[in-house]
Every structure is written in C-alpha cells, then in structure tokens.
User: Fold Probable transcriptional regulatory protein BjapCC829_06005 from Bradyrhizobium barranii.
Amino acid sequence: MAGHSQFKNIMHRKGRQDAQKSKLFGKLAREITVAAKLGTPDPNMNPRLRAAIIAARQENMPKDNIERAVKKALGNEGENYDEIRYEGYGPGGVAVIVEALTDNRNRAASDIRSFFTKSGGNLGETGSVSFMFDRTGIIEYDRSVASDDAVLDAAIEAGADDVVSSEGGHEIYASTEGYRDVAKALEAKFGEPRKAALIWKPQNTVAVDDETGEKLLKLMDLLNEHDDVQHVYANFEVSDALLAKMGG
Assistant:
C-alpha cells in the first residue's frame, strides 16, 4: 500500500498545526530550560540545548523568549520538570512513544492513558514498544543547501550512519554517540540545520487502512496538543487521500 510515512509526515502536520497555538512557545521554552539545567547554558557545549534552540528558531520564537528560558535555568526559577517516556499501542496495534516534560506526573499519566483508551489503544509499560524503534540522531537540511551527492559525501566524511535525500530535504542519521560530532561537522560545511535532535526512529512502518488511520491521526493530535507532551513517535503509514481529508 503506497502511502505516507507517519514518521516523516505527522511531524510536519504537527508543526503546522501547533504553530497556530501559543502553547508551542511554552513547550519550546520548557525544553530549553530543562536542557540548560541539565547541562551547561552554553549551546556550543550542550548539544541538547543547541537542538532546543534550533527548534525554537525554526518556529520563529523571539530571541528574548529563548534567552529568558535559558536564564530561568541559571536562576533556578520556575517548576522542576520530570522527563517521562510513555509507550503503548494505538488503534490497529500501532506502536506509539510519547516523550513528556511534566511538573505533575499523576496528571500526565492519567491524561495520556485516557487518550490511548479513548482511541481504542492501551498504554503499556516502559520498554513495551521501544524495542521496535532505534534511538538515533537526525540532522535535517533544506533541499537547496547542496546536491544529494555533496550531502552524502559530507555525511560519510563526518561519520554518519545513513542519508535520505528527497523533495522534502536531506535527512542525515547518526548514532547517539557520534551524533554531536556529525552535527558539528555538517554545520561547519552547510550552516545551521533546520533540525538536529535525538529521536525514536521506527525500524519498520505499518500501512493502515483509512478508518484506522483516522483514529490514529486523532490520537496523535490529542497527544501533541497536551501541554506536557514534547514529542510523539509512531510506526504507521497512511494514504495520501486520508492526509488530504484530515487537512494534512
């Protein structure tokens, strides 16, 4: 069944929808503050903070907001957030990973569990689906930055594991251990990427019918709209027709 990969396309759909909501800046600021608290406030020495700042810039978050989020960490202001990973199965047995930053574990767990249950899925234990994903680094560039061959050559030289070039741009994958060095080498050659982060990449994707796909897309939206949820990953593909119907 030809279709769109949820891994690539739902992320873009999410970006367009969340960009219309003021809460997006709150989520980005939360990640910046947590990253700065856990490491150094210097993004050149803190790859997680650098990734968070790049993500904020991509969404046109004002520089003042970014600096304020870093200062919050330095002054130990605001809430302390727990990082939690939830894993479960959505409609059709599709594997779903949810990453959250929350100041209320009970609320987050209750809300996320209810989203899974209402969609016809179920929340599982930590580790129940993550074995179907690879924890990996991704560095993304726009299509216009260089030719496929030039990006491939640079990625190989930098020590990347894989490169996928398409109309949507260049995606370079690297191991969690080598990700920072690969990102720095590519940035020196091509400039700041549009995205640089550690992600959960599905080892395989499952094509679902439109009825199941619609339920899954609604579950993705519910999860992504929750204040505590930072990232959602799943391993399904949906048809072009359904994406068009759902406004994707």
Q: What stands out?
A: DSSP finds nine helices and eleven strands in the chain. The longest helix spans residues 23-38.
